[in-house]
């Protein structure tokens, strides 16, 4: 009779498929590229939730990867600071005017970009 072996515990970050960094960076470029045109109100209404989703997808993965580094490691501290900043930006409201909505979307895009950088730098 074969013995059942316990599988190692996995975290939610390890169970999900890898994030599509290329797609995330394409959304970021729409707002952060040097030659980017200001987004239309319709674009803002789809970009902001998209960027929030990208942040949610990356935060746990980056945080989990950073926690595997030594506590006094500089890349760990940078990644954890980025995670904290991204979570703070998720709490930003959408804004009452198009100008504020655009500013919030730009901040979200910067967080996606930074988290994607940390994701790429912390991968084994």
From TrEMBL:
Stretches for region Disordered: 1-20
Protein name (record): DUF6415 family natural product biosynthesis protein
Species the sequence originates in: Streptomyces phaeoluteigriseus
